[in-house]
Design brief:
By secondary structure, the protein is an all-alpha fold. The chain has one domain. 65% of the residues lie in helices and 0% in strands. Helix 4 packs antiparallel against helix 5 and helix 5 packs across helix 6.
Amino acid sequence: MVDCMDIAILIVEALKFIFPAYCANAAPVLAGGGLAMDFGKNFVDGKRIFGKNKTFRGFFFGLAVGVAVGLIEWMLFDYPLLFSLLSPLGALLGDLTAAFLKRRLGIAPGGLFPIVDQVDFVVGAIVFSLPLAMIYWELAVAVIIITPPIHLLTNFFAYKLKLKKNPW
């Protein structure tokens, strides 16, 4: 039988684990713009590689914010130092991978791709964190379950604050 306290502890651990990735994923909204990471180039299928919304400024700002949060967690929770880099880097590369996939499917930058839009960055963070042996399957599942509602809620607030063009 599963204890409610065990579930609460798992949710707190999941939030602690994924927080640098959340921050890395959210930060580009604040400082994006500038040169597109695909340099405006098209892939072999004639469609943009990533699209206009994936910029170097947003990527590196997101990485810097995520690493800073990861360093704070390293100090507070004794997480591996390398986690400070791997989690946010994985999150940003997971998001880029989804952008690449969305372009292949003909979904415009900022267009809705349900489920993928909400978990692409956490999958990247989880995969990049695997070599550190700090994640176990229950924690990964908890992160994937709690992220969609959190992601949708924070995006809605960013939309209301006019930081995003779409509420998703």
